[in-house]
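Subject: for your reference before the review

Hello V.,

The reviewers asked for a structural picture of the protein, and I figured it would be easier to keep everything in one thread rather than splitting it across files. Below is the amino acid sequence we used in the manuscript, unchanged from the supplementary table.
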Amino acid sequence: MKGMKAALYTELLKVWKSRMLIVTMVFFVFIGVMMGFLMLAAKHPEITENSSVLSTKASLIARADWHSYFELLMQLAAVLSVLGPGIITVWIFGREYSDRVIKDILALPVSRLNIITAKFIVAFVWGILLLIVLCGTGLLAGLAIKLEGWSKNDLADFTFRYLTTISLTSLLITPVALITSLSRGYLLPIGLLILVLIITQFTFVGAPAITPYFPWAIPALCSGVTGPFNPDPGFVSYLILVLTSLLGYAGTAGWWQFGDHH
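And here is what came back from the structure prediction:
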């Protein structure tokens, strides 16, 4: 237990003293504000009449009300819950190789399992925190522009779906950590994240029948943003997601314990 506390304290200290925490927070706050601005543009089209890009995006929103805004935030969460926690995981695991301190870390009198577990805890909590900040900023922006159609039931439903989606997707950071450790850098795992997003979109468009069995598509099915024509996730879907997360964790632990780090 003492080793776990030491490893966790070390990882938290690294995050606190880096600029990544502030940068990611500001970025997600900015996205939340921009979602509010997009709804404002949909509510008052004259704002974007001089910008064809913003005008086109705003025109895609059928109604500028809370129901549409909740769905917009859910769609955004389905994407950013892959990229946000994923990039954080790449940074947490990849920096040890880019800074060339991996050998020093492995030489410490702390269990390697404790080290990677601490890294996963920090990555998971950090990613969830960013997505909550995004949601909170987005809701405040919606209140600021005085959207219509506020409903406590809609808010409760949105909150449940939002938290479920970001939690399930954040469990899938473990394969990202494994690829980061194996490749000893940033490029390959970030490419993997982009590929995952592309494949996920392809499955929903071209092969919806396999979406309940593709780990990164399952949270989006739970969110309800994929529409009524996609299948609902079942027990097997959640089992696949959990097994993918556990295998990624086991693979990362095995690499840190037995891999060639020279």
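For the response letter, the relevant points are probably these. The longest helix spans residues 66-98. Residues 2-258 form one domain.

Happy to draft the paragraph if you're swamped.

O.
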